[in-house]
Amino acid sequence: MEKKIYIMEHLGCANCAAKMEAKFNAHPGVSAATITFATKQLRLEAEDPDSLIPALQELARTVEDGIVIVPREQFHGEIHHQECGCGHHHEHGHECGCGHHHEHEHECHCGHDHHEEKPEKMPEQTVLAYGAVLFAAGLILNYFGVGGLSLLCCLIAYAALGREVVATAVKNLIKGHVFDENFLMSVATVGAFLIGEAPEAVGVMLFYRVGEFFEHRAVERSRSQIMEAIDLRPETVNLLVRGKVRITPAERVLPGAQILVRPGDRIPLDGVVVKGESRLDTAPITGEPVPVRVVEGDRVTSGCVNTVGQLTIRVEKPLSESMVTRILDSVENAAASKPKFERFISRFARVYTPVVVAIAAATAVIPSIVTGDWGYWVYTALSFLVMSCPCALVLSVPLAFFAGIGAGSKKGILFKGGQSMEALAKVKAVVMDKTGTLTKGDFKVQSIIGGMPLLQVCASCEQQSTHPIAESIVAAAREQKLTLVQPEKMLELPGKGIHAMLRGND
User: Fold this and answer.
1) What amino acid positions are annotated as catalytic residues?
2) Phi-psi region of 417 (alpha: psi -120 to 50; beta: other; left: phi over 0)
3) 120-153 as b/e: b if 16+ CB within 10 A
4) What averages of pLDDT result for each successive group of 10 residues across the chain (506 residues)?
5) pTM of the model
6) How far is Cα 400 from Cα 397, in angstroms, rounded to an integer?
7) Residue 484: DSSP 8-state
8) How far apart are CA 17 and CA 217, in angstroms?
């Protein structure tokens, strides 16, 4: 059984993603399928996953139009680093706030390149702004009794804000998919127009679109926080070929090749030092703030930062097997490992919307028959539908976990999944050692036994060193405004300290 990860382009609805996942798992050729809306990834386990993509793509399009399933390896470089001429970074297949629409190419399962063209589309912020202005104008005109102009403003605003929602609801009805948020919003707002509450219909659609906009931004921000924090994989490396440096894509470097890592560079691939000596900042990988000394023969891990000397490294593992790739895969997979509460919400959502529609229908009909006040009870039922959209319910729990994973990644904390965060709620006590793993790693002089003269001597000896403890001693001396003397001779003994001569004295 083979496992493979794909990217689902144009996946725009968490509730739809849950429906697609159920359909995929019901397919006879699929052993297991998991769709993670936050990362738009499909994890597929089957005998031959690639052969199932055409059928799964058609199944997905019965739920949401325009879905394209692309192997992650063909999509990965664009999803994080695509840049257009406007100077902004954009995620593959999305429209940015700069007002430009960005086309993209992808390669499908058949092996041919396709260029997917999408019509020019007005930016979301512009649509919301137009809708808000017209909505406000409609309210003001309605307040002053100018009903005709108020209705016209509301109709134009609704056409701008609700066109796509209503069109999607109609398409889904034709496909037999009735119970989704597009259906609920369309019924509620069209019903409001029919009972003479045009401003309220526009207001509901405006706030729904604003909520969707912020929901999308929240997902994108959490995703970018994760990728910025843990995507340590290099794009290129300094490959040594017959003594000369050649800039080469990291994925093309094979084990056995030698690469050059200069001071300040991040180690791109796992390997062994064959020449040079330096100290490595391993905090991005291990969390330890104290630099680690490496010499010839020492193994080094990708993702660490070379702080001092120049190193020549013999590559031991390709990029696909290096530590940075394993970390990235681990955190990307974190959102797919659904905690218990998220799995419960997914199951609950399957019956939630039909029940909501049934209750709304009962609310509109039964009290109206008894009281005869159809207008009030239909209005109440429509209000109930507006408050009961399933997409927010389905998205809220996974987005909360995903946002937590993203916020943690920004602070250097890598969660392996929602289960880990769920388990933290049961933690009663935390025990840690004193290595500084959970601290900032900034050394500071706490006390001086021997007074300021000793601090002055130590700082004078250490002022040329780049070791973090040396830097903390020099910083303490400068805070005390002590005058430092340049040593006549100085020898740094790795792992032992400094041997220096000041004014002729060792």
Assistant:
1) 433
2) left
3) eeeebeebbeebbebbbbbbebbeeeeeeebbbb
4) 86 78 90 82 89 92 86 56 35 36 38 44 82 90 85 92 87 74 81 85 87 76 63 80 89 92 90 92 76 90 87 92 79 62 64 81 91 88 75 65 72 71 84 61 80 87 81 89 84 76 70
5) 0.54
6) 5
7) P
8) 18
